[in-house]
Structures are given as structure tokens and as C-alpha cells.
User: Fold this.
Amino acid sequence: MRPDAVFNNRDLQSTQERLRSNSIENSEKNNKPSSKTEETGVLPRSILSTLNRLKVELDPSAEEEVVKNFRTSQRRTLISVRLVLLLVIVPFLTFQISKNLVIGPLVDRFRNPEQATMFLNYEMEEKALEEMRKSEERLKFQSFLNGGEELSAVEIEKRLQERVAEIAEEFRAESSNAIKNVFADLLSVGAFIWLLLMSKRELAVLKEFFDQIVYGLSDSAKAFIIILFTDVFVGFHSPHGWEVILSSVSRHLGLPENHDFIFLFIATFPVILDTIFKYWIFRYLNRISPSAVATYRNMNE
Assistant:
């Protein structure tokens, strides 16, 4: 499914041309030199703005302009929502379909369960040994609960062998699933990159859509969102969240949990994110909405 077939190219071009013309007109109005009389003004600005609003409302073509702007905004919203859905659904479907229908059968066919490696890393082996010790202790505990009659060593060994066989089968399946995840993830990432490369015009519309939403929020809403994101990703409790995420990714790919790498990542990456947030606030938000920055500082203190 090509994105070019999903999106209407004529609507995209007309939407972008209208957005571009509106931005050019706004920049020309903002950059137009004003005289001293225009700066001071004979009448108050409130009266002038009221007169201008009445002039626009009495204009016969005002209704057509409002409808045209509404249709342009509607097309931009539809294009943005479709692109976001495609960016989420296409990689997810690629992962599930490729894993279950293509990669899974190939791995199961060429990877002999009897001769394949049971443990992909040493942590899996340690977990299996720990599970075996727990099973042995559980058997002894259950034997004490059953009227105090202790099981014989032969009976315990027999049940323990059955449990070890189950543990081995579980870890073989986990290792095989990790191998499938690696190849399926590569295909899903490739589908995501391909979708980005084929949707450059839609990405431009999506950027304008998000800019309109973000910069159209109130100052308190902007400050609330900034504080929420910074506290979640670079706040005091964020290292625990990053540790859980990295551990889950390691298990998903069948990699050992390298604690040195995890600690190094936690010590550097949140700091980099915090620097990026502060630079964005200083460089862009402070210029576009200084009142939002003031609200953010008051809420953060």
C-alpha cells in the first residue's frame, strides 16, 4: 500500500499552496514598515480593531473566505490524522505479519529445537538455574505440607527432571521468539523509514498541523505539557523508567542486560534531553510565546 495512493495529491498541493500563501501574506504584513503615525495612531487600537472586524463582517466575500479557510484546515487535519495512523499501523502490521507468517515458519524450519542453543545469553541460563532451585524447594515444601511425609529422593528427582524438561522447553521457545523479534523489528523499521521517505509532502502538512496545535494552546497548557514531559523523561524518577524500558528491550531482542551500559545511558541521555528542552525553550518558545515561558517558570518554582 503506497501512501501516494492513500493521499489525494491535488488536495495536498492546493492545501500547501494556500498555507504557503497565507504565511507569505502574514510575513509581509508583519514586515511592512510602519510610520510614526501608524505606531502611535490617532485612535485607540481597540476602536480600530473593532472597525476592522465590522468591515470584515460586512464584506460580501467574508463568508466564502471563512468557508475556504475551514476547508483548508479540514484537509490539513485529515492528511495529518491519516499519516499518523499510517506511521503507527504500518510498522505494527509489518511486525506481526512478518513474524507470524514469514520469519516464524523459517526460523522454526531451519532451527532444530533439539540441537539449537537453549540459552542465547548467560542471564537466561541463570534464570533457568534459579527456576530449577525454586522448583526443588517447592517440592520439598509441598511434601512437608502433606501430613509431614517427606518424599523420597528418587521421587523428588523424578519430578524435578520433569520440571527441568518444561523449563528447557520454555527457554527454547523464548530464544526462538527473540530471534524472530530481531528480524521482524528490522522489517518494521524498514517499513517505517520507507513510509517517511514516500510521505515528504504529508510530513510538511503534519508539521504545520502540530505547530498550529502546540502554539495555539494557552500559556498554562504549554507550561503544563512542558513540565509533564520533562518530569517523565528527565525528572527525578525518570532513571527507573529508563531502566525498565532498556531491560524490556534487552529481553525482547534476547540480549543480556548490560548494567554498565544501562547506568551509562541513564547518566547521559536524560541530560542530553534536558539540554534540548532548555534550548528549545530559550531559542523558540521564548521568542514566540514569552508569557508561556514566564508561566512555566512560575509553575516550576
